[in-house]
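Session log. Operator J.P. requested a structure for one protein chain; no other inputs attached. Running the standard single-chain path with token output.
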Amino acid sequence: MAEKYDTVLFDVADHIATITLNRPERLNSFNQTMINEFRDIWARARADDDIFVLILRAAGDRAFCTGVDTTEGIHMPDDVWQKNDPGRGLGPKQNKVWKPLIAAVHGMVAGGAFYWLNEADIVIGADDATFFDPHVSYGLTSALEPIGLARRIPLGEALRWALLGLDERMSAERAREIGLLSELVPYERLWDRADQLARIIAAKPAVSIQGTVKAIWETLDLERETAQAVGLNYTTLGNPIGKAQVAREGFVKPTWHLR
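Structure written below.
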């Protein structure tokens, strides 16, 4: 099932929703239209029980995304008290989507692209990927993206990424070393590998997968003992349903692979 949007391609097949940023002529930078379309996509992902897993990737060979499209800008109200982070429309977790998101990145991955990476569950990268934040080079405070990034990678790495601006790019190899990427693959294998991972996840009981994602993300900023207490509620609610689904479908233990 393919659906029509102006800035992205959206397709659902075999319980996997594949979202492809589709502005390669603008290095897949996002504009207000893309923000609005992602709000719609996340709403659909929440409501559609046929979607178990999501993949985010990008068209073209130069960039995954270079942040906001500065030629168009995005809508911000004049009233300073009504201004909101534009990234709230882009990220799945801020839109309460607990179906796992696999981000497959290549080429330039810059600035506002991290609205997606910071909320992805698995990020894999092509060997040509480079990561940088141009904000401070243009005299702009880099705040929202590195705040999210500092929850994924060592603080010193997030600060270096933000403070050196256009003078330095992080390589795919370094991103893998610090845990930003969980896997590094040749460029030509990137989309196939993302699809392979998505199919492995989609084959598992959806209620167990969603409960796992929700439990981890919703307790991320809680003190450990509180997080453990809250986490117990997720197992109490979700485990009976997930175990019953496994029993109905019949469980075959898979052949494991070493990473």
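Operator note: The two ends are 33 Å apart (CA to CA).
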